Amino acid sequence: MLISVDDIVFRTIDAASHDLRKLSLSIHDNPELALNETHACKAITDYLKSRGFKVEHSVAGLQTAFVASYVSPAGAYGGLRIGFCSEYDALPGLGHACGHNLIAISGIAMFLAISAVLDACRIPGTVRLFGTPAEENVGGKIIMQKAGVFDGSDLLMIMHPTIGYSGTWHSQCCQKMSVEYFGKASHSAAAPWDGINAGTAASLAQIAMGATREQLRPDWRANSIITTGGEAANIIPEYSRIECIIRASWAKDLRVLEQRTLDIFRSAALATGCTHKVTTEFAYLDNQDNPVLGKMYEGIMREKYKVPPTFGQGASTDFGNLSQSFISLHGNYDLAGTGAPNHTSKFAHDARTEKAHENTLFAAKTSARVAARCVVDGVFWEQVKKAHADRLND
């Protein structure tokens, strides 16, 4: 009896559903912050090894990063090199309020499905599952990309729960920055003139940030907080610190906004006589899905939900950095139909439900079907590559 590629995808993911549900709940009930996802990493890699897959641990110098791989019985030469990403870090105080327990199992589901397609069809190729820590903070994928972990990939995919669905999501660029001001302590009543007020420098920077927002483009964001402003009211503060996040829709705009922010930090130091130090983390660049892959993904999702895709902005992901260099799909799907936004306690609650599990596996099947078509349909794959080349040449 002939079995279609779609049937292989469905049967493989359905057969793993029980195990994936257990993994999802285990990760959800043991939330771990960026670069400390030891329970989640061990649970996932133990499961993969129990299925006979080769797993490389602590890649790119990150203890909780891994790569699992499978090579077709027909060999790797001449075939596609497809990669899927799993995330599993949680949010401070909210746990899995972005559904990374589900992103973890969706990556596994797609990896299992395409491994089964390569095996059953005896098509050359390699499939890899990238365990990517610290998406919510630090940017694990960026570190892994700089270390060459994704090199050689023809196609990269990830799934993400949210409100609604989309296969052509353009995220915002995001840059985290901090500034420290260094002044001189003095008694605020007896000899304030002997002090250099680092707290005032932080306040001036905050005021300038607020004033600058009036001239920012509608899609630009600049948000900051003073994390340290002083120790006591009767002491001129010698140290202060601000944490800041800036966002823009495009990388070139982010650079403009970054320079404005640096100017503000410098001017506050100049006005108060403080010295200052700016620390800048890796920038999360905007996600750019491949339109051919996205159209197929959205077509399948629309058949199920009977509503058009949702084109939202306002969030950022380190997968965006991968999409700048690789053919990619960041498939968004509806978490549980409750309308709860990401990064809320309600979203964390919904991420544990059976409905969220069902929606996750359907989205994983959909994305795996897209990946499988790239494997078996040479004409379709050429269209995908052309769309990628056209974007790079724009």
TrEMBL record:
Cross-referenced Pfam families: M20_dimer, Peptidase_M20
GO molecular function: dipeptidase activity
Family as reported in the entry's similarity comment: Belongs to the peptidase M20A family.
InterPro entries from the UniProt entry: Bact_exopeptidase_dim_dom (IPR036264), Peptidase_M20 (IPR002933), Peptidase_M20/M20A_hydrolases (IPR052030), Peptidase_M20_dimer (IPR011650), Xaa-Arg_dipeptidase (IPR017144)
Record's protein name: Peptidase M20 domain-containing protein 2
Annotated source species: Linderina pennispora
Domain Peptidase M20 dimerisation: 178-269
